[in-house]
Amino acid sequence: MRTRAFKGGVHPADRKDQTNTRAIERAPVPQLVTVPLSQHLGAPCSALVEKGDRVRRGQLIGDVEAMVSAPVHSPVDGEVTDVGRVVLASGMRSVAVTIVPDEQQDLDSFEPVTAGNDSVRERVRAAGIVGLGGAAFPTSVKLQPPREMPVSTLILNGCECEPYLTCDHRLMLEQPDRVIRGAQLIAGSVGAGRAVIALESNKLDAAAALRAQAPDGVEVMVLPTRYPQGAEKQLIRATIGEEVPHGELPAATGALVHNVSTAAAVADAVDQGRPLIERVVTVTGKVRRPGNFMTMIGTPVETLIEAAGGFDGDHGRIVAGGPMTGMALADLSVPVVKGMGGIVVLHPAESAPAVHGDQPCIRCARCSDACPMMLEPYAIGIYANRTDWEGTDRYHALDCIECGCCSYVCPTRRPLVQLIRGAKQALLQRGAQL
Amino acid sequence: MDAMLVIKAVAALSVIGLAAAAMLTAASRKFHVEVDPRVERVLSVLPGANCGACGNPSCFGAAEAIAQGALPVTACTAGGQAVADAVADVLGVEKCAVASIVSLRHCGGGRAATRSFDYAGVMTCAAVARLAGGDLECPAGCFGYGDCARVCPFDAIAIDTRGLPVIDLDRCTGCEVCVRECPRGSIGLLVMAPEDGAVAVRCNSHDKPRARRDYCSMCCIACKKCEKACPADAIHIIDLLAVVDYDKCTACGMCVAVCPQECIDLTGRAAIAPAVMLDGRGPKVDGFLPVVPDARPEGVGK
Amino acid sequence: MREWLSVFRRGLAVDNPLTVLMIGLCATLAVSTKVEGAFFMGMAVIFVLSMSSAIVSTLRSLIPEQVRIPVFIVIIASFVTIVDLTMKAFLPGVYTFLGVWIPLIVVNCVILGRAEAFAYHQPVRLALADGLGMSLGFSLVIVVLAAIRELFGSGEIVFLGIRLIAFPEWYPAPGILLLFPGAFIVFGFIIALAKWYNGRTSTRLVQTDAHCTIEEGGR
Amino acid sequence: METLQHFTLLLVGAALVNNILLTRFIGLCPFFGVSSSMDTSLGMAGAVIFVMTLATTATWVFWNVLLAPLGVGDFLYIPAFILVIAALVQFVEMYLRKASPGLYRSLGIFLPLITTNCAVLATATESVRPGFFKMGIDYGFGFGEALVYTIGVAIGFGIALLTFAALRERLEVAPVPEVMKGTPMAFITAGLLSLGYLGLAGLFGL
Amino acid sequence: MARRAASTPLNMIGAVLATCLVAATALTLTYEVTRERILEQERAAERSALQAVLPGAEQFEAADELLEPAAEAAGQVPVQAVYRGFDGSGAHAGWGVRVAPRGYGGPVTLVVGLDRDGSVLGVSIVTQNETPGLGTKILTVPGWIDQFVGWESTDIKGSAAGFDAIAGATRSSVAVRNGVTAASQVYTEVLAAESGEEEDGS
Amino acid sequence: MTETTTAARMQVAPSPHVVAPENVTHLMLWVVAALAPATVWAVWNMGMVAAVLLVSCIASSLGTEWLWTRIARRPQTLWDGSALVTGLLLALAMPPLTPWWMGVAGGIVAVGLAKMLFGGLGWNLFNPALVARAVLAVSWTGVLAEAGPYPGGWFRALDIPATGELDAINGATRLAIAAADRAADGAYGVDLTAYYQPLLLRNLEGCLGEVSALLLILGGFVLIAKRIIDWRVPVGYIGTVAVLSWAFGSDPIFNVLAGGVLLGAFFMATDPVTSPMTRSGRVVFACGCGVFNSVVRFFGPMPEATTFAILFMNGLVPFIDRAFAPRTFGWVKRRG
Ligand SMILES: Cc1cc2nc3c(=O)[nH]c(=O)nc-3n(C[C@H](O)[C@H](O)[C@H](O)COP(=O)(O)O)c2cc1C
Ligand SMILES: Cc1cc2nc3c(=O)[nH]c(=O)nc-3n(C[C@H](O)[C@H](O)[C@H](O)COP(=O)(O)O)c2cc1C
Ligand SMILES: Cc1cc2nc3c(=O)[nH]c(=O)nc-3n(C[C@H](O)[C@H](O)[C@H](O)COP(=O)(O)O)c2cc1C
Ligand SMILES: Cc1cc2nc3c(=O)[nH]c(=O)nc-3n(C[C@H](O)[C@H](O)[C@H](O)CO)c2cc1C
Ligand code: SF4
Ligand code: SF4
Ligand code: SF4
Ligand code: SF4
Ligand code: FES
Q1: Residue E30 contacts B, CB cutoff 8 Å
Q2: pTM above 0.90, yes or no
Q3: Which of F142, F145, F161 lies at the smallest CB-CB distance from E171?
Q4: What is the pLDDT of residues A274-320, one digit of tens each?
Q5: B188 or A19: which carries more pLDDT confidence?
Q6: Residue F149: pLDDT above 50?
Q7: 8 Å CB contact between C124 and C61
Q8: What are phi and psi for residue B172, nearest 5 degrees?
Q9: CA B141 / ligand 4 centre spacing (Å)
């Protein structure tokens, strides 16, 4: 197994003990939910409701015809008070439907979704399921692999390699049946003969829980704890020993990767017709009562922090997602979206130091040693800094998965990921122009 | 003197000389390759900045296209009339006039605009624009991190002490490189007569005037005073924002005088304010613009 | 006269063969350990360049296009040989020092004479101005370089046996300046100086130029 | 074995110990002129190896057939050699341009530069006129030795040019002071590079 | 632009031939004129070097017949010439030996003057290619070269042991020392016998 | 949405939001710490002269860095500690009787010419301390030689040419003596194993940094254990020197212990800025240093070539980086 592991990676302090023993609890119903119409990669939805409309929990409120997209549903019974632009945690501007929830909410019921037919894929699409592992890519698209690349192995990604986050861990531990059911449904849908649930060695209890219920054909694989074990390409390398070729989809190796929470959501969508209106969010760090909260999509981050007891003294950056790849929030009123697995309130001393501008590279090679894509981040950074995009392309900037290992290890704190991201954007734009 | 030695020397040198001459002559006849000499000639009068404004990747590409007639002799935006004339000259065709365009900044906020968060990271406009939509409350304002200044192939832009790019119209050639680079569209490209100058509205926010006022003291408040003052009917409030019609504008400066927000400027050769440049060694300004010099390793993108 | 001067001056600064065109580096770096050697190297180049510019220009209408290169080369190389032999005969000490670098200047003189680019198309007067300007520009830089290297590298400047200037006895002359690395490094700083100087003057030129032409361009 | 050792030492001596660019100050114009990128310097290095070999052959023939027997070499060698080299290079350039445009694009464009380069003239002269340079050994060259020596020099030229180009590519992106950008820094780098070569001086008694 | 001669074959051959004619003639002339002087200069240089190392002598005569045995005697160090020196009265005043030991940057050519008993009268460096500033100190350090004066061929090992090298120019110093030692060697093995003969002969 | 309710603005920065604990200053201070025992031992044994040299080198390195950043109006980089390391290594590479003004000149050359001029920390192409040492060595060979033997030891420490005869020089390092002996009789006249112990523990005949090979090795091990340097470099360098010494018929252990090989291999060839980025590249680099060092030591005019070996290989680093670029994940072929 060891020989298959990916090269590079880092071992940040994982600090998962704050929340990995806290059972999932329900977050309070907020006073206002703001459901963005673009929570996924792909075409944004158009609003199907107007200001003043009444909506029911589970009701479809936004949809679009495009193939790469996912509809959105109302998480509450309530009244639409606005349909307008808001800023999301990612800094993107999106149209959002703002709903004031009714006093009385029946949280156990919802309007089941209606799908065009009974196929798993259609139901998943109708339920608005997107990848809950972070990228928020519409799951239904991934359930339709290109014909020339049949999927032979389904990998369920339970690595949760980011420090602090435990939402997937708790889900696997508390509801292994949902995860396994999802695995079976997805594997059946894409015709994969083998399903592997992969998790890191710091979640042995969850592995045991899964193993206890895993039927034949569903394998539980424990991988070494190393960031970014959960990144798709690295995970495929670690589980089936193959490298996704440059520029190809993972399906080229015969693998399909889904997050465990995604699988659980698929199980609910198929079995109960349940739309994706809630997800588990880990709220942790410098808060008084860290924990995992079943949270309605659209809940303001402030509400969640209050639910976790509020700030515990001074704090540093507040991050949506994990501290390695998540986004620092400028504003706590932004809503929770489908792809947001955690709110991490960092300790002031722990937040990366604020770097203004360029830092020198001392060529220590730590970044290239840590890069799981075997890139040379220092070089990409240097060329990106000069806006020499050809130079960044020579060093394969586009292969970067933005895992953050390079910035993490850099002793001079060069903002490598940001530089590389800029290069990627520029290269993609130029590619689009050509 | 040794006559024999002279003869020997003459003979030796002549043999070598004739051999060399013969070889070269033969070669130049036998291996003659036709290269379009016009391309070379056009290339020799182009500025050689390879700025790409003409839509060609390099001046050489432009020269080829011009020589082949695929592009007009005025194709080099950067070179202006002088180059156009020179190109016409070397090609032996009629000269034609080019319109002179320069770029103009559409934001006057700078330090007067509110920042929404403390930013740390790469000090470029493009980078900050990708993080939470940028550190300005104003959705359209200039960040002031100077991407435009970095890319201008003619070194026409510098960030001044207000944290705003100032465009040196003497140097700007209207190549549009900065316009393409700016993540905000804070710079607009327009046609103007440099001798006369022109007016520029320094606000680009499409928020409601009330919201604008909250985050910027220099914004256009859509009071319509300029519209009323303009004798040439060249400035109008459109979508709650003053917009100049440069075909009509005579650069009389009436609107500049009446604007209560000092949001309109007269620009042009005669009117460039002597701004204090921050090109790496000017005074350090507190607030949001601490590191532009550091963020810009010297000569980046030049 | 103004034209003559402007052609002449070009070689001194904006088109200086050493600091701008970067031609003739070998001899420059090699013989600049001594002002004496540098001086005579400069003289040699001045002689060869001005003589050949003048002659090539005089003969320009007699030389057919296709054989001009061999003809020019012979002319220039002959002058170099003359310098070579003469120096050997009359300045043996200097010759031993300059040694192989005299024959090698033929290469640079061929370029610098720029027989083709300049003398061939110009009247003798201007060709001479160009040749003189270029070679003086060359000599100026090489002598300055040699002065710095000799003075700081050995603590004194000795010219034809006469000690022109000397640092006090305790001055610890860094020998590195007389070696290859010293040559490169000092020359690097000289180029920077020249660049700075040219930059100062020529930016201004560019600016006014642009302004004028746009205005004269008549819109 | 003797000869092998002799030729090896000749090669190493010419290429590294007495590196033409960094320890002898010959051929510096192209060293600074075409070293701004690895790709161009690769082309230049190839062209130099090619031309130097050709030039040595040609001058060797002219010297031994014409100049030396007539006793006019001492004062005619400068015009004779530069003429031969210039004509040769020009000829090869034209030939390549016609016969092999691909090769012309990768090597040919550097050919005119080579004529204007001391290294070729110096090496060709040196190979036929032993003692032209006061180097460590008095090279009394036969044709084979002349060729090996020339190739050694050319290889040394290529090595120095390529390493220098790689250094300059890194230098290019460095935040050096504005006035020092470009050629001034190139010279300083060359100075420090030659500092390392200083350590080779006198190796094997070469 | 001036009118230019057309590129007809005749013109071209004519132009090349004419240039070559003029150039070759001019060069031959220069060569002829300078040759004498160059030879004279070389002779003068050699003479003054010899004179410097053999103060008593006025006339010098190359003893080419001794070159071969001398070279053998000197071992590693090449011997380039051996001279007999005669004083004003034509009497044999001593020997001059030109040797070329290897220094740092190549051979260092020096002339060593020996009296008839083989003790060193003077050493003069003719050509060298040592590193400027370092090796060239053998030329520039005042009085350094004089330490060799008085070395006796009979005790050359002893003298060599007490020799004082210039700091930083050790290899060049040693080269000079080796040259002097070689010259002494030549004296011991070849010239001593010759000196004796001459004495007998005179 | 754009209204900020919190009084203080929040900090927004790109991911990642946590970083590894070690920063540049830590790295540099670790190097200083690893060198500290050897330095203290040197001062203990050599006394005031060594202290004066240390102070002059370090003060002038730091001073040059400070002045440069002030004059060029760059951010102050004095506190990253790299100038301290440079000054310290420069001092350790010089003989103790080096006059103080040479230490000052060395610091200026190292930091001013070799580092700041190239753009400051991280941009220099050649090892600053070694550039300075080489410049001093060729500039003032005479001065260094005349500094004479250290009181109580008979030594001459710089790269003086071995001449074939012992008596030609005023004094010599053991290395020079050994080389001279070999040249003279074709074999060592002395038993080199007898030198092991003094070289390891207390040797006053070399540079400051050569007083105890043992302490240098210990320091090097600390850096390797802390993963501040890559073990491949010292192992490749020292291994090559040992193997080649053996192949050339000499004592490998003596050749490793004597002279600057250890200081160079552990602390100078490992300078991250001037060594290659990839592991395979570093192996090539280290072996190149070793080959150069040994070949020059045995066939060249100087007994000590560490400085020039590393400088020479520094020049090849960008080339090596190009040639040994890693294979990007998912790319089958090396990039062209
Ligand atoms: C433009 C685009 C198209 C994609 N098309 C497919 C697809 O056709 N089939 C599929 O299985 N996955 C597809 N993917 C999904 C990706 O391969 C990947 O699984 C997804 O982006 C999750 O990435 P993550 O590792 O960053 O979370 C696509 C992704 C993108 C960005
Ligand atoms: C650096 C990095 C780390 C990741 N870590 C995880 C992880 O720990 N768990 C996870 O489920 N997905 C992780 N992902 C996302 C996966 O690559 C992949 O997109 C996801 O597992 C696909 O499942 P989904 O489409 O159901 O989200 C990571 C992605 C990146 C780029
Ligand atoms: C010795 C020598 C020096 C040259 N110097 C120059 C020069 O200074 N500038 C230049 O543009 N070309 C120079 N060239 C290149 C030739 O002039 C050019 O390639 C050739 O004349 C082209 O022939 P054409 O007139 O038929 O186009 C030189 C060539 C030689 C042989
Ligand atoms: C392991 C290590 C070794 C170093 N070695 C040197 C050295 O040999 N010489 C030097 O000047 N600086 C050295 N430094 C300091 C620093 O990297 C050096 O000053 C940079 O070259 C300056 O850009 C070293 C630093 C580290 C971390
Ligand atoms: S962010 Fe990109 S470059 Fe950096 S370590 Fe991750 S994959 Fe490599
Ligand atoms: S980790 Fe940082 S300092 Fe080290 S090589 Fe990478 S960018 Fe440079
Ligand atoms: S200011 Fe803008 S339009 Fe004007 S020259 Fe510069 S980049 Fe081009
Ligand atoms: S105009 Fe645009 S590019 Fe220029 S500083 Fe402002 S935001 Fe940046
Ligand atoms: S190559 Fe230009 S002078 Fe030698």
Answers
A1: no
A2: no
A3: F161
A4: 999 999 999 999 999 999 999 999 999 999 999 999 999 889 899 99
A5: A19
A6: no
A7: no
A8: -60, 135
A9: 44
Measured by CA distance, the residue closest to atom 1 of ligand 6 is A410
Instruction: Confirm or reject: Cβ of C111 under 6 Å from ligand 3.
Output: yes
Surface of D (114-153) touching C: CB under 8 A: 115-118, 121-122, 125, 132-134
Helix (H, G, I), strand (E, B) or coil at E60: strand
CA dist A24 and A162 (Å) reads 19
The rounded distance, in Å, linking the Cα atoms of B234 and D75 is 82
Of A329, A355, A421, the CB nearest to B130: A421
Q: What's the rounded Cα separation, in Å, for the pair A175 and A265?
A: 12
Q: Do D67 and B27 touch (CB under 8 A)?
A: no
DSSP for C7-46? HHHHTTTTT-TTTTS--SHHHHHHHTT-HHHHHHHHHHHH
- ipTM, two decimals, is 0.84
To the nearest 10 degrees (0 to 180), the angle between helices E170-186 and E67-74 is: 130
Render pLDDT for B194-252 as a digit per residue (tens, 0 to 9): 445 667 888 888 888 888 888 888 899 999 999 999 988 989 998 888 988 877 887 77
Provide the 8-state DSSP code for F77.
-
Where b means 16+ CB within 10 Å and e means fewer, D174-188 reads bbbbebbbbbbbbbb
| CB of B154 closer than 6 angstroms to any ligand 8 atom | no
Picking from F1, F11, F274, the nearest residue to A86 by CB comes out as: F1
| Chain-chain contact of B19 with D87 (C-beta, under 8 angstroms) | yes
Which tens digits make up the pLDDT trace of F220-264? 999 999 999 999 999 999 999 999 988 887 888 988 988 889 999
- Scanning chain B, the segments in alpha helix (DSSP H) are 3-30, 37-45, 59-67, 80-91, 125-130, 147-151, 177-181, 209-215, 225-229, 254-258, 292-295
Quick check: do A and E touch, 3+ CB pairs under 8 A? no
The full DSSP string for D55-95 is HHHHHHHHIIIIIHHHT-HHHHHHHHHHHHHHHHHHHHHHH
Task: Round to whole Å and give the CA distance between B21 and B26.
Answer: 8
Chain D 27-66, residues with CB within 8 Å of chain C CB atoms: 27-29, 31-33
Q: How close A292 gets to chain F, by Cα (Å)?
A: 21
Task: Give dist(CA A329, CA B243) in Å, integer.
Answer: 35
Ligand minimally distant from the alpha carbon of residue C71: 3
Residue nearest to atom 2 of ligand 5 (CA): A400
Tokens of A346: 């960092």
Q: How far is the CA of C107 from the centre of ligand 9 (A)?
A: 7
Q: Which of A292, A290, A288 is nearest to A312 (CA)?
A: A288
